[in-house]
Design brief:
By secondary structure, the protein is α+β, with helices and mostly antiparallel strands. The protein has ten helices and 17 strands. The strands form seven sheets. Strands 15-14-11-16 form a four-stranded mixed sheet, with no helix packed on it. The protein has a three-stranded antiparallel sheet with strand order 1-4-17, with no helix packed on it. A hairpin with a 5-residue loop joins strand 7 (268-269) and strand 8 (275-276).
């Protein structure tokens, strides 16, 4: 009996070893040279594997795949600007909810605290446009006065922000998340926010400037505590110091050797035992928040998750299950599944029997999520996506991660070979004309002119652009430009046609609307996300 048990134990160990076969490649010994990694007696090369984003805060992991992008129904009066085609989308992360007023006010508060006293124009540039609520023949003053700040609207979606402002928010969010990661792991000290409000007296100026060469404290006057009718001169840290030394930016931290933070209690060390900055290979940083691409938005909205048979349902009209704007289940029969306009003047139904319950936007966590667990992928507000709009993009789009809007940039250096920093503390970027692919395979002669005129350009007889000799300033420019961006999803003020995620509209990236908000996305790293739970 003992021999039998011993045999079974050996067989079990062997089978376990076969089923749990270890990977031959590892981060202990080089399979190319045979040298050991992490060996202080040699070069102490540090090798890592398997690090990547793990469910970034507030985001849902979405496993990519193949699906049919493009129009799901035919409307004779609708533009044919998104014809059906099969594409593949890589795995990515997307915000569970649309960015809220509370999220945006956190952003504004940070900007006000950091820049308010020294560069208020940076704060003003991030403020949403309250005037988007104005209509010539409507009384929307309560929204204009209260929508963005009043706590009653904290969890309502931010609107009145441009595409450019949304992208700036994504960069700010990336930097704050990465900054917190470094502080939490002990690689960097928490920024001393108290210094931003510190007031220096005359006898402290020289010592501070000796400790911070190249910067000068800025003088300002305020009423004297002893005699309010008298003023005293005090000094505060200059904007340039805040921009260069205080504000954390991920790219600046990674590539600018002159930017050395104050190390925390557990800094990483290099091969010689010296404290070093965290780098990409350490797997600490998120890849960066951004707007989703148009293909990602459409994929995430439809949530084409395979069933037990390995097949997905194609041809869905809306993000929710089924093909009707109302819930068809027995429990919630007849309830609307999104916030939109049913017909002329019908914004929310009749008193005592409201249908979608909201005359304008709704809180971002209302209505049922789709099969990826994402809320309000149709209705509530339209959402900015990254893509530059072209009516014929579908004819040239890549079969994998299709996107129009690539600009291959690189950090900008000054005449001394140092990285230039922009007004918000980020590394400046630049690119050549061949690196700007927003117009690639455009097919539209008009959009190649760099002018600011608002009306369409008549290109009759201009098929050969190189031989066109007239002055460009004598003609009118097209409405569609390199800065025309796509938005999708339908809103509280739209008819149901626009709630179909395949529909697409456009607006200039420096314009805003009470009907457009956004949510962030993030690329995944390494292997595809294992799977996405179906709600």
């Amino acid at each position: 009996m003992k021999n039998v048990l011993k045999y079974l134990l050996i067989v079990g160990v062997v089978l376990g070893a076969v089923s749990c076969k270890q990977r031959e490649l590892n981060t202990r010994v080089s399979n190319a040279t045979g040298w050991n990694y992490f060996d202080r007696k040699t070069t102490n090369f540090q090798a890592f594997e398997g690090v990547g984003n793990v469910n970034p805060t507030g985001m849902v992991p979405i496993q990519g795949g193949t699906f049919t992008v493009g129009e799901k129904d035919e409307f004779l009066t609708a533009p044919r600007n998104n014809e059906r085609r099969t594409v593949t989308v890589s795995s990515f992360y997307m915000d569970k909810y649309e960015v809220t007023n509370l999220n945006w006010n956190e952003y504004l508060h940070w900007l006000e605290f950091v820049y308010g006293a020294v560069a208020p124009e940076l704060v003003d540039a991030a403020r949403p446009d309250h005037k988007v609520w104005r209509e010539d023949l409507a009384y929307n003053d309560p929204y204009e006065d209260n929508y963005f700040e009043h706590p009653a609207f904290s969890f309502y979606p931010i609107v009145g922000v441009t595409w450019e402002q949304a992208m700036a928010y994504c960069q700010w969010r990336t930097d704050r998340v990465n900054e917190l990661a470094l502080v939490s792991m002990g690689a960097m000290q928490l920024p001393d926010f108290a210094v931003l409000s510190q007031e220096f007296e005359e006898d402290e100026v020289e010592d501070w400037q000796m400790e911070n060469p190249g910067y000068e404290l800025k003088a300002f006057e305020r009423p004297s505590d002893e005699d309010p009718e008298q003023t005293v001169t005090l000094y505060r840290v200059p904007y340039e110091w805040i921009r260069d030394k205080f504000v954390f930016n991920t790219d600046k931290y990674l590539i600018d050797d002159s930017y050395v933070p104050t190390y925390g209690r557990r800094p990483l060390q290099d091969s010689y035992g010296n404290n070093r900055k965290v780098n990409i290979a350490d797997g600490v940083f998120v890849t960066g928040y951004r707007l989703p691409t148009e293909a990602e938005f459409e994929f995430a909205a439809y949530a084409p998750v395979a069933g037990e048979d390995g097949l997905t349902i194609e041809g869905k009209i809306y993000p929710w299950s089924g093909y009707h704007p109302r819930d068809m289940t027995k429990k919630n029969l007849g309830q609307l599944q999104a916030n939109f306009v049913r017909g002329r003047g019908d914004m929310m139904g009749v008193s005592g029997a409201l249908n979608d319950r909201h005359v304008i936007t709704n809180p971002v966590d209302e209505f049922a999520p789709n099969d990826f667990g994402l809320y309000n992928m149709a209705g509530n507000v339209n959402e900015w996506v990254m893509d530059v709009y072209r009516e014929t993009t579908f004819q040239e789009a890549s079969e994998y991660n299709s996107f129009r809007g690539n600009i291959y940039s690189h950090p900008k250096l000054n005449e001394n070979g140092q990285f230039e920093i922009d007004s918000t503390g980020c590394v400046k970027l630049e690119w050549g004309s061949k690196d700007d692919l927003r117009d690639v395979r455009d097919g539209d002669i008009a959009s190649k002119f760099e002018t600011d005129y608002p009306l369409p350009l008549d290109t009759t007889g201009m098929e050969n652009l190189e031989n066109y000799k007239d002055e460009v300033t004598n003609v009118l420019a097209p409405r569609i430009t390199k800065n025309t961006r796509v938005y999708k999803g339908g809103s509280w003020a739209d008819r149901i046609y626009w709630l179909n995620p395949s529909t697409r509209r456009y607006m200039e990236q420096d314009q805003a609307s009470s009907k457009i908000g956004f949510r962030c996305a993030m690329s995944s790293l390494g292997n595809q996300i294992p799977g996405t739970p179906v709600q």
